């Protein structure tokens, strides 16, 4: 939603009074170099700020009021406010690439700015819509549930508003395409992802309700993170350059034990699973595995990841 | 062998934690808004983006504002945003400092490659090419590290200067505080009484005349470290990783201020932690840049290489724009009187 503010920046600046995040940030940062500059940009900058601004551009004899007027009229103020709100909502680890990406997307969206003015074909339009939805979905990590949920609904709206002729709604084809794109960009191997997709995909012609959409997106992102965690785990097991099959299997078995036992409706189950995966239990299992007199061989990364992912996917509720 | 693994282990663990921090990072999410923004200097860049936009108002109509911001933030990410900017901006954030170090290295790497030795003043001129108002004081301080505060008009190699400059520039505020602590230890005062952040610059210069009894020169390393560790804890500016500072100080019994700075500047791990420059061995190694340079050289008739004839116009003259895209460098227009008189370079190369 916050993003639509940015799109409609030209007339959206009637909400000037909500500059709170900007101003907070500016004043609290005073004493740092940022603080001084923050004064300058504030819409209600005092006279002291004017000399600052003018110093930055001595060649131009224009007063600050006109600079502010310019910023407001050109929609800069509103655009930056929307961007800042988005940064605060998503709290990206690296805000600068995030902002570059954000403005890039903004520029592409409005043909007046991007320059790509010609009416795009239907297929291109579809691709653009998916790209935009993906961008929204990635703005916040799924663990920030509120922000993520917001972005999911914006993405859903993006995809549902398909042209004037068709009725609004999201079809299974677009949904599946989006899932595939997420998995592909997440660089998860095909053989890991396809069992998941089989579970959460819809048929091409089916209408996808919002709940299913959200569930699918969330599951997909969680799996990707699960896989990358499993990958980090393998990295640890692979310390000596060769992951011991017995130890790997012990770790996987422990994971399986923790995941499979009982239903996860009761909160206490989470604690139980956690304790089973705690250092004590896991270390014991690994120790036992090492002591067992079995032939020693190694397990490859792909195999480990696939096995771990299978455990995860087994718990995924199939759609429909 | 043993040291090799000992060095590698913590780094891997560090990578793992940073990876997990990227995924969940509860501390980042728990911060108040303004602290999060201040920590990552978001507002510094937003303010700067706006003032750049105002300075280049005329270009906006053709670019579009979103495009302008995209380019601005892309250039910030790439580290090209600091080129030819004022010093106050260049030192405003750790990222800007690292970018500047990187730019300095990349631009003047050839100095080192040719093995030229330059004086402090000459290095200062090079710095001023990238940042016109770069303060002489900082260059002097860096030179003092290389020359151990002695014979300041000596020649220095590029890499010696670069690594000393890196420490001095990047950890400027930290070194001020270190100098104050050192000075207090030397005069037997308790450094805790020093109000560190406001310590005036150049304080360390009023030290007593060098005693030639080298056994008692400097301060005791372990005691020095205790104070530095404490300093790192409460310092709001960047400081080198305390573990590495400890490593530097644990090798010696006593050391002088400049001895300490030299050790910091030559420390491989500190250079890596800072992340702006490659290892000393790779300093001259940048094949992509070399290729680019050679290509450019070949395109400049009459400069260094043998003058090429005008028929080489087949290859397009794309000068690599290193400056901010909205602030084109004003290259002096080449007026070659002996050429066929065509001044339209681009058209000429098209034909």
UniProtKB/TrEMBL annotation, chain A:
One of its GO terms (biological process) is sperm axoneme assembly. Residues 1-66 are annotated as: Disordered. Residues 7-20 have a biased composition (Polar residues). It comes from the Eukaryota. Residues 126-317 form the Tubulin polyglutamylase complex subunit 1-like C-terminal domain. PANTHER family: TUBULIN POLYGLUTAMYLASE COMPLEX SUBUNIT 1 (PTHR31932). GO terms for cellular component: centrosome; synapse. It holds the Pfam family TPGS1_C. This is Tubulin polyglutamylase complex subunit 1.
From TrEMBL, chain B:
Residues 338-351 have a biased composition (Acidic residues). It comes from the Eukaryota. One of its GO terms (molecular function) is protein-macromolecule adaptor activity. One of its GO terms (cellular component) is microtubule. It is found in: Cytoplasm, Cytoskeleton, Microtubule organizing center, Centrosome, Centriolar satellite. Keywords: Cytoplasm, Cytoskeleton, Microtubule, Phosphoprotein. One of its GO terms (biological process) is regulation of protein complex stability. CDD domains: DD_C11orf49. PANTHER family: CENTRIOLAR SATELLITE-ASSOCIATED TUBULIN POLYGLUTAMYLASE COMPLEX REGULATOR 1, UPF0705 PROTEIN C11ORF49. Interacts with PCM1. Interacts with TTLL1, TPGS1, TPGS2 and LRRC49; the interactions link CSTPP1 to the complex TPGC. Binds to alpha-tubulin. Regulator of the tubulin polyglutamylase complex (TPGC) that controls cytoskeletal organization, nuclear shape, and cilium disassembly by balancing microtubule and actin assembly. Regulates the assembly and stability of the TPGC and thereby modulates polyglutamylation of the microtubule, which antagonizes MAP4 binding. This is Centriolar satellite-associated tubulin polyglutamylase complex regulator 1. The lineage of its organism: Eukaryota, Metazoa, Chordata, Craniata, Vertebrata.
């Amino acid at each position: 939603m916050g993003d639509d503010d940015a799109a409609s920046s030209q007339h959206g600046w009637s909400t000037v009074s909500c500059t709170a995040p900007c101003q907070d940030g500016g004043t609290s940062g005073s004493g740092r170099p940022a603080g001084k500059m923050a004064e300058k940009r504030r819409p209600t900058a005092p006279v002291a700020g004017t000399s600052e601004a003018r110093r930055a551009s001595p060649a131009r004899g224009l007063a600050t009021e006109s600079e502010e007027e310019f910023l407001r009229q050109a929609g800069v103020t509103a655009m930056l406010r929307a961007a800042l709100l988005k940064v605060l909502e998503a709290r990206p680890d690296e805000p600068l690439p995030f902002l570059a990406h954000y403005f890039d997307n903004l520029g592409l969206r409005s043909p007046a700015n991007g320059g790509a003015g010609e009416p795009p074909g239907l297929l291109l339009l579809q691709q653009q819509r998916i790209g935009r939805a993906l961008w929204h979905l990635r703005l916040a990590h799924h663990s920030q549930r509120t922000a993520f949920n917001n972005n999911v609904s914006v993405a859903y709206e993006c995809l549902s508003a398909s042209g004037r002729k068709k009725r609004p709604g999201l079809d299974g084809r677009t949904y599946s395409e989006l899932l595939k794109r997420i998995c592909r960009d997440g660089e998860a191997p095909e053989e890991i992802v396809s069992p998941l997709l089989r579970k959460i995909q819809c048929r091409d012609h089916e209408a996808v309700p919002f709940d299913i959409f959200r569930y699918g997106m969330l599951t997909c992102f969680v799996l990707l993170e699960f896989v990358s965690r499993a990958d980090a785990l393998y990295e640890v097991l692979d310390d000596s350059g060769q992951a011991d099959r017995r130890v790997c299997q012990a770790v996987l078995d422990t994971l399986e034990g923790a995941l499979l036992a009982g239903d996860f409706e009761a909160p206490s189950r989470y604690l139980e699973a956690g304790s089973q995966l705690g250092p004590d239990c896991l270390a014991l299992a690994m120790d036992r595995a090492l002591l067992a007199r079995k032939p020693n061989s190694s397990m490859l990364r792909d195999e480990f990841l696939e096995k771990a992912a299978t455990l995860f996917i087994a718990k995924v509720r199939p759609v429909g | 062998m043993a040291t090799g693994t000992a060095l590698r282990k913590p780094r891997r663990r560090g990578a793992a934690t940073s990876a997990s921090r990227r995924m969940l990072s509860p501390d980042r999410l728990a911060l108040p808004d303004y602290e999060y923004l201040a920590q990552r200097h978001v507002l510094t860049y937003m303010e700067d983006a706006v003032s750049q936009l105002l300075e280049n108002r005329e270009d906006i109509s053709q670019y579009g504002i979103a495009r302008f911001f995209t380019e601005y933030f892309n250039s910030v990410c790439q580290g090209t945003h600091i080129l030819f900017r004022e010093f106050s901006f260049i030192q405003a954030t750790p990222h800007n400092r690292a970018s500047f170090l990187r730019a300095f290295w990349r631009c003047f790497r050839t100095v080192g490659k040719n093995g030229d030795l330059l004086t402090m003043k000459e290095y200062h001129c090079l710095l001023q090419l990238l940042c016109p108002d770069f303060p002489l004081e900082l260059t002097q301080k860096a030179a003092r590290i290389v020359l151990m505060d002695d014979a300041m008009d000596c020649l220095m190699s590029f890499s010696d200067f670069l690594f000393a400059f890196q420490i001095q520039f990047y950890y400027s505020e930290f070194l001020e505080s270190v100098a104050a602590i050192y000075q207090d230890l030397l005069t037997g005062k308790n450094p805790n009484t020093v109000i560190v952040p406001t310590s005036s610059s150049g304080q360390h210069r009023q030290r007593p005349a060098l005693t030639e009894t080298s056994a008692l020169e400097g301060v005791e390393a372990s005691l020095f470290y205790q104070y530095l560790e404490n300093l790192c804890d409460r310092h709001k500016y960047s400081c080198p990783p305390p573990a590495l500072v400890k490593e530097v100080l644990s090798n010696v019994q006593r050391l002088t201020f400049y001895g300490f700075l030299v050790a910091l500047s030559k420390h491989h791990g500190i250079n890596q932690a800072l992340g702006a420059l490659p290892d000393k061995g790779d300093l001259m190694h940048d094949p992509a840049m070399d290729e680019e340079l050679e290509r450019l050289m070949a395109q400049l008739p009459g400069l260094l290489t043998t003058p090429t004839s005008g028929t080489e116009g087949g290859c397009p003259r794309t000068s690599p724009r290193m400056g901010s895209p909205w602030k084109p460098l004003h290259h002096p227009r080449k007026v070659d009187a002996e050429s066929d008189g065509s001044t339209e370079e681009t058209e000429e190369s098209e034909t």
